[in-house]
From TrEMBL:
GO MF annotations, alphabetized: copper ion binding; electron transfer activity
Cofactor stoichiometry and binding remark: The crystal structure with reduced Cu(1+) has also been determined.
Any one of the GO CC terms: chloroplast thylakoid membrane
SUPFAM superfamilies: Cupredoxins
Residues bound to Cu cation: 146, 191, 194, 199
Amino-acid biosynthesis is among the record's keywords: no
Major site of localization recorded for this protein: plastid
Keyword hit for Methyltransferase: no
Protein name: Plastocyanin
Amino acid sequence: IEVEVEGRRELFPLLPGVKCPKGHVCHSRNVGIETDSKQMLPLVINMKKNQKNSALAMSLNWESINENLEETLTSNAYCDRRNAMKRAAGLASGVALMTVNSAAYAGESKSVQMGSDSGQLVFVPAKISICKGDTVVWTNNKGGPHNVVFDEDGIPGGVSQEKISMDSQLGDEGDTFKMQFDTAGNYDYYCEPHRGAGMNAVLIV
């Protein structure tokens, strides 16, 4: 959309499908540039042109970089956008396609405290959302011993409850337990010694 700001003509993007408001002038433009194989984003074209190391430029998978950057612009899902951006950054720095396509490559780590700072028998936070391939680190904070046990009826089908649950307890403050999650779904879990006190939580992958 074309707008006059302090006497200057400015162009602002409209979301796809939005009609031009009455009384305004709108312009359409191509999102990318046609190449021999497919349409490439202007950003990728400029990255390719500005790559100083010609050997590296020739070895990079520009189509995969373009696909991942395109996904960061078009996807409605946070995890897809985040992972695509990390894959694109990895590919641009010369990391192999097989490596960046692994779930763990774009993975992050999220922290959960076992016991609040005031000594309450709770998980903090009691509900977190992560992306597939992310890792959760539980830290014994206060009121231990604590552990993490997943409810067999409250996890996605095909996931082993024994494999993702702790088989012991954390007794010392600062002790940690970590687990990576690769299957999407809701995971209900609890602290076995303090389940009766309501020490339950949920993880959404």
